[in-house]
Amino acid sequence: xxxxxxxxxxxxxxxxxxxxxxxxxxxxxxxxxxxxxxxxxxxxxxxxxxxxxxxxxxxxxxxxxxxxxxxxxxxxxxxxxxxxxxxxxxxxxxxxxxxxxxxxxxxxxxxxxxxxxxxxxxxxxxxxxxx
Length: 131
Description:
Elements lengths: L7 E7 L6 E7 L6 E5 L4 E7 L5 E8 L2 E9 L19 H27 L12
Antiparallel strand pairs: 1-4, 2-3, 2-5, 5-6
């Protein structure tokens, strides 16, 4: 069974300038923005957790200017396990018994109709003379 990939994403922000900079990490999944200030020449790592089976757009901004935009998805849907036994297809035993009983009843009904057709209408008088 496939395992779910990590939902954690590490974002590394570097300030290569000579002044401290303000930045923010924003997401479109309803989570709060992560603001921060980074000193000159420093590096900061932030770890965010993605929602399962939904694409998340991550935007890094600096002084309201977009620096980086990426989309990531934690694909955690697992394929259903294969069935232990094969599914039963076709008629089950009760249907077979019902069909056999119906067939037998139809045969008995046919025999009764054939027999009754032979004795009805009975005439006492002879249609043809025996000569």
